[in-house]
Fold this protein.
Amino acid sequence: MLKIFNTLTREKEVFKPIHAGKIGMYVCGVTVYDYCHLGHARTYTSADVIVRYLQYLGYDVNYVRNITDIDDKIIKRANENNESVTNVTNRFIQAMHEDFKALNLIEPNQEPRATDYISRMIALVEKIIANGHAYVGKSGDVYFDVRSFSPYGCLSHHDIEQLQSGARVEVVEAKRDPLDFVLWKLTKPDEPCWESPWGKGRPGWHLECSAMSMELLGEQFDIHGGGRDLIFPHHENEIAQSQAATKKPFVTIWIHGGFLQIDKEKMSKSLGNFVTIRDVLLLHDAEVIRYLLLASHYRSALIYTDDVLKQTRQSLVRLYTALRFLPAAPAEENSPFEEKFTEAMDDDFNTPIALSHLFELAHEIQRVRENDLEKAASLGALLKKLGGVLGVIQSDPEAFLQSGASVDLAKIERLIAARNAARKEKNWAEADRIRQELTRMAIVIEDGPAGTTWKRLK
Ligand code: AMP
Ligand code: ZN
């Protein structure tokens, strides 16, 4: 029985889809004006594992992840670079796709871009105005009337009076109330703009996700997610817009992930303290990064250091080592290991506990392999199947164990050949010396029926 922590109720709830067997899931995507960083990798790897697990449970998941391709920051970047807005967005969308592919993120079923949904957004604003929840302000911009929508604050658990006294809410004279937020803003010179009943302009940021999610998943759908910075105001405002238009509940479960931090701060583009995915990939295997992200629960904070990535490789080495030299076999069925794995994942997608069960399984494979290779093989197939739910250990074990930035392949092969020659001549001292030389290079060799194999330790 799958339970998911719902930000709306602040409880782990038994998950029940609106339509049996089918799940609509929307995750807020990237604002594309720079390369994606490890914070993005964290949020989208969590979403990826949630989708994979729902699929493993047999659900047909419609996974939508949007692209914000119009926004103040994008316009600013285009101006700084003397580049068109579409050039900036196309460039960074392509880079994002490359990075996400490297991280083995499954592609969303649909990836709508905000600028393709402007007419849908305008129709939504018209509906919200017609229902009495929005107005044209003194400036000509259209605002959502927060006080007209009584559930406002339901997601972030703020009450309106508390918000009102909060100093962070900007005061703009054009609004009736400082809490009101913009749905449509009139154009400034040299900005991209679209025709609308209220004049040429562009949508407020929150509007796009209400419009695109409801268009692609229906007015009511199951899961909506993102990083926890989106709870307020972005998702709070999405609820207000959507429910003000449809007069129906919008989303059943809201999922929010914790931040990836660096130096105790949230890694972010605007703070400038970010490490891009592509920079990390120059030094580390993508699978190691992915593993690191799954080794803590998606709702907790994750502190990033380079050292932590080095240690992470060891965990994958252990899992891949268990998968080595096993013949092909069907995965063991009704296994207590699988039962424990699903129990952990059913508990709000507890990936660290799920991983610990994969280690127990790896240990069991090593224990039985000598006396019962067939059993080891079917447990190995199970390990690979469950690893697949987390998107790890799908490569050839030898390829992973031998991979790494600093390996001098030719030298390793030369040393192994020299050692084999020394052994043939029963020159054990020389064979040992070569083994030690390889160990100093962090290469461990093993002599087995298939000859001498090797793996990299770090
Ligand atoms: P942005 O590119 O800022 O629009 O963010 C896209 C998504 O990445 C949002 O769901 C954010 O919550 C998430 N995100 C941004 N920075 C981090 C971070 N340091 N840790 C985790 N998620 C993040
Ligand atoms: Zn969004």
Observations:
- The chain is about 45% helix and 15% strand.
- The chain has three domains: 3-257, 265-401, 409-456.
